[in-house]
Amino acid sequence: MSGKKTSIRLLGVPLSQPFTSCAWTTLQLGVPFEIEIAVPGASSKMGTKHENFQNLTSIRSTKVPVLVDGDIALAESPAIMAYLCERYGSENGQIPNLYASPGSEKKAMIDSYMHWHHTNTRSVAKLFGSKVRPDLKANVSEREHTEIQNILTIIDSGWLRSSPYIGGLDTPSIADILAYGELSTVTTTNLLSVKNFSNISSWMNRMTLLPYHDESHVALATLGDLSDDNNSTPLMKRLGAATKAGMKSILGANDEAMQAYTAKL
Fold first, then answer.
1. What are the residue ranges of CATH 3.40.30.10 in the chain?
2. Which of 3, 207, 233, 249 has the fewest CB atoms within 10 Å, i.e. the most exposed one?
3. Is the separation of the CB atoms in 69 and 22 below 8 Å?
4. What is the CATH number of domain 105-210?
């Protein structure tokens, strides 16, 4: 990483699972970045439906996060995380931190999970979206609840069957960060329990020990329990406080990364 200057911008909000996964990856890689608020579903100048946001990517994405690094703008969190690892996560041509060398079995397993994630673990987000994005009208059906339990079973008895981390790996990767982003969001807010899935429970405990875990997940901790519809604090006020706290925490951690990064140049 020595000698590589960076002007990374990450657009999104800290209550977005994919945004948090990308921010946490960037912090662990020790790469400084700027954060720009982009509110999912909003048409204002800070919203993802505004032309300013849509014009960033060739596909006119309306989803967060988007990563801007020099002349490149990327959507889709797995692609962003892989790019960050390959560009900034290696030293002197060595294996990138949190990822793996091209053509290796380890990289194949990480990539396999990240492709699987799109139509499986990512669907867990509907539990959260139904609470915090009423505009989506995303009520979760009984069939979808059953599918979520099936996905947890596959993660528990498949991806985590015989190893501490996803895909038979002994060390954490961006596959773990991606999966954890979805599951921690709904467990921290008490919308889903994984207590009956021993491998997932142990894995989530291990993930909390990774660098910058707490700093990256302050927004969720601030938001708290969403299972109680009788909470006296208006939801929008809770979301605003959580977003503010999350931004402050990630920016503070980023200042540390900036100092460490500058020392290497």
1. 8-96
2. 3
3. no
4. 1.20.1050.10
CATH number for 8-96 (one of 3.40.30.10, 1.10.274.10, 2.30.30.210, 3.30.70.920): it is 3.40.30.10
Tens digits of pLDDT across the chain (265 residues): 434 455 799 999 999 999 999 999 999 998 889 999 999 988 999 989 899 999 999 889 889 999 999 999 999 999 999 999 999 987 666 667 899 999 999 999 999 999 999 999 999 999 999 999 877 777 899 999 999 999 999 999 999 999 999 999 999 999 999 999 999 999 999 999 999 999 999 999 999 999 999 999 999 999 999 998 778 899 999 999 999 999 999 999 998 877 766 676 6
CA angle at residue 201 from 29 to 223, to 5 degrees?
Answer: 70
Task: Determine contact, residues 51/6, Cβ cutoff 8 Å.
Answer: no
Q: What angle do CA 121, 123, 126 make, to 5 degrees?
A: 135
How many Å apart are CA 196 and CA 80, to the nearest integer?
32
In which residue ranges of the chain is CATH 1.20.1050.10 found? 105-210
